[in-house]
Amino acid sequence: MEVLARSLISAFPVISGVPLWAVTLLIMVVVAAILLVFFLTFGGLGSYVLRKVAGDIQVRIGPNRVGPYGILQFLADGAKLILKEDIIPAKADRFLFVLAPYLVFIGSFSAFVVVPFGVGLIAADLNIGVYYVMAVTSLVVIGILMAGWASNNKWALLGGMRAVAQIVSYEIPVAMALLPAVLIAGSLSLQDIVRSQGGLVGIFGWNLFHNPFTFFSFFLYLTAGQAETNQTPFDLPEAESELVSGYNVEYSGIRYAFFFLAEFGDMFVVAALASACFLGGWHVPFFRAEALPSLWGNLLSLGAFLAKAFGLVLVMMWVRWTLPRLRVDQLMRMSWKYLVPLTFVNLLGVSLWLLVFKGKGIPQLIASIFTG
Amino acid sequence: MKPNVPVEALHTQEMLINMGPQHPSTHGVLRVILRTDGEVVVNARPDVGYLHRGLEKIGERVTYAQFMPFTDRLDYLAAMNCNCAWAWAVENLAGIEVPERAEYIRVIVCELNRISSHLIAFGSFTADMGAFTPFLYSIREREKVNDLFEAACGNRLTYNYARVGGVSADLPQGFLEKTKEFLDYFEPKIDEYNNLISYNKIFVHRLANVAAISADNAVAYGLTGPNLRGSGVSFDLRRDEPYSVYPKLEFDVCVGTGERGVLGDCFDRYMVRINEMRQSVRILRQAVAQIPEGPVLAKVPRVFKPAAGEVYFRSECPRGETGFYIISDGTGNPSRLKIRAGSFVTMNIFETVTRGLMIADIVAVIGSFDIILPEIDR
Amino acid sequence: MEPQALFDAVKAKFGDAALELQVTGFRPAFVVVAPASIADIARFLRDDPAMRFDSLMCLSGVDYKDRFAVACHLYSMRHRHAIGLKAYLPKENPLLPSMDAVWPAANFMERETYDLFGIVFEGSKDLRRILLPEDWEGHPLRKDYKYPDFYHGIKV
């Protein structure tokens, strides 16, 4: 940010009188606004795509009335939610009830800060990137528990408690499944992780093909990520047919919109992290995006990243509409008895591999045979 | 690992949760009063009666023929079966001989309705379990059955097709060919459903070993239909107390086998319904081939006064046996009309079977029993 | 088993409690018994090896204009035969022993009979109204039932 601020000041001498911190702050606000717009657009269009995908899988059409092919449906839904009456249950804990959606939204949105969109397109390349995302997405747990408790509704409370148990339990496999990528890159920073996958041409630089353990890790991460974002088969906290929408049953209007958007944001964060850590991030196959002039390089890498992230979001939606739901004890068992040991073994495997092969993956080893 | 805090010092409380009467998975206006200890159910008491319309009292004020539309509303997903059950009961009471073509038509529409009722049971059950997609597939198949019924009697849900002495109108031209087309289209779909969801690991884990009912308990608690057969009891009214033209038709009685868990668990009851759809297809093929020409309505006097007497007649409906206990005193209206519905008696075992299950299992149990509230409440 | 043979067996065991056999015009035939011994006769019918009526098909209350009755329809899965069991009750204070210890299936049906007729089943493990609200007054299926005008202020 500071570098950008300095370069802006030197480019536009007219604002050289303004102190550095003000320009930096202004840039931060602008970047946050851009991210927010992206977040909201993704939430809206994502819901449209979700419904269309659901329709395709379920042999029906999906939205097709509002706008051509129903593409403006999300605007209509958004307008409806904003115009709805704001109902707070009489005996609800007002302060917590109002605070909960914001916490969930913040938990989801603040992870966007470290998502590497392109070669130079990252809001803040924190050197604790992965760690930061893990920490910040845990805010969602408090928000959901607050929502469940403050609603003064036993069903909401059940949903909230299930959500807490689920998200907290699946945090461990999520973190453990991401660590192999960190080990290979030698850094927690997401830009470093992406850059470390750029060595070879095409898709062979990807961490996915680095060694069998990271290959496995990718799928473990997607599974745990599906659980983190409360998607079927792990959607017990908001199981429609059992808990009647669980922890957000008493929410209506904009407050509900916050929960809804936060869910899409979480989905994108999981997909973005998966593509950044395992699928090469913004690397374009058979191209050196860093070598291109700055604007084109950025755009191309942004396109590649978004394609990968959206592809993974599509996979998550696909799984959502196919599989039935796990029961609470089965969910817990899956996390603690299966995913946690598997991810630990995985981590051990990657560490040993890196030790034995001195940090090289299978494609790199094959390449080094050919090059001498 | 022992907790540091002695368990007695932890203050736990049972939660009293109300499930219903408005709830996405209670298959109607069923209220279940749950007392839970966390996620484990201590006691689940069903509270029925939200849809009580006094059908039995109404039956005492209308004539036998006028009661036919009320039987549609008894189990609206299997309305043809209920219509025909009432018609058979009254014919049994008055000793009316029904023409053979009418009996074949009744069997055809009853079996088609059994297929569509089991499709809804299958679809809504999987939707309750979280797999939303199979429901849409089963609706797609059911639409075709609805089209057939619309051609036959004009209605898609409450058919009012059977009459005392036969059926109200003959099948339209092309009905039998279209039925054959539907059967050819539908039979492979059952395998598709099995591939898609029936043996899916998550689905099986949700249902296996949940709410297992032994054969003795099933009989003692009065379970009937697929619920009874799911516990391994091979009893089907169409084979064991045959009525209409069922003696001329060949079919197997589908029984639960405990293939994925304990015998008599939710999965067995679910698989019995899937297999029964296959058998219904088999019956339909034979009926469509064997149906003779002839009249479709016997001559029944306009003012119909059966002789005094009492009769209990039961027939196999998709949700169990529907029995009519009719007391006639020689007038045109029944003196007492008691409807014995399969779902009502099935709710009897609900409280016993749900002890110790988790809340998510309650939904599985309700879905596996395939209850429908109008039948329970009448 | 033929209804007459069955009736004779019951009469042999319970003597005067077995009152009459209704055959013509009744399908299945009814064994009319004294109300006080209906639970014992039911148990006998369930346990006797020749009869084995292990399934209660239907239990209903009836209002013959001068008296009530409780009519049970029984079926044997083992021997595949059916019989009816009937007990006539006086209009004032109709009560008889509960059969839900013999067939658990009887519980809901007895509750329904109590709800709609007011027939009390003694010894029932749970006798409450089932179809109507708990505070409803009257028993609708009785022939002399008068509909209330208001229920909780709502015009009926």
Count of individual helical segments of chain A: 14
- Please give the most extensive interface between any two protein chains, plus how many residues each contributes: B-C, 39 and 36 residues
**Total of domains of chain B:** 1
- Which radius of gyration of chain A do the C-alpha atoms yield? 22 Å
Annotation, overall tally of beta strands of chain B = 8
Measured by DSSP, the beta-strand proportion of chain A falls in under 5%
The CATH topology of chain B comes to Cytochrome-c3 Hydrogenase, chain B
| Superfamily (CATH H level) name of chain B | Cytochrome-c3 Hydrogenase, chain B
Amount of helix of chain B:
40-55%
Extract low-pLDDT stretches of chain B: none
Features:
heterotrimer; A: about 375 residues; mainly alpha; 2 domains; 14 helices; globular; B: about 375 residues; alpha+beta; Cytochrome-c3 Hydrogenase, chain B; three-stranded antiparallel beta sheet; 15 helices; about 45% helix
Q: Would you write up a description of this structure?
A:
- The complex is a heterotrimer of chains A (372), B (378) and C (156).
- By secondary structure, chain A is mostly helical.
- Chain A contains 14 helices and no strands.
- Chain A has two domains: 1-83, no CATH class; 92-370, no CATH class.
- Chain A has helices at residues 2-11, 20-57, 73-83, 94-109, 129-137, 139-150, 154-185, 190-195, 212-228, 240-243, 254-277, 294-322, 328-356, 362-371.
- The two termini of chain A are 43 Å apart.
- Chain B has 378 residues and is an alpha+beta fold.
- Helices cover 46% and strands 12% of the residues of chain B.
- Chain C is of the alpha/beta class and 156 residues long.
- Chain C has one domain: Beta Polymerase, domain 2 (2-Layer Sandwich), CATH 3.30.460.
- Helices cover 22% and strands 31% of the residues of chain C.
- Chain C contains three helices and ten strands.
- Chain C has helices at residues 3-14, 38-47, 106-117; strands at residues 18-22, 26-27, 30-33, 55-64, 67-75, 82-89, 95-97, 120-122, 150-151, 154-155.
- The radius of gyration of chain C is 17 Å and the shape is elongated.
- The N and C termini of chain C lie far apart (49 Å).
- The A-B interface holds A 54, 57-60, 154-155, 158, 162, 232-233, 235-236, 239-242, 244, 321-330 and B 15, 17-18, 23-25, 39, 126-133, 135-137, 140, 197, 200, 202-203, 205-206, 358-361, 363.
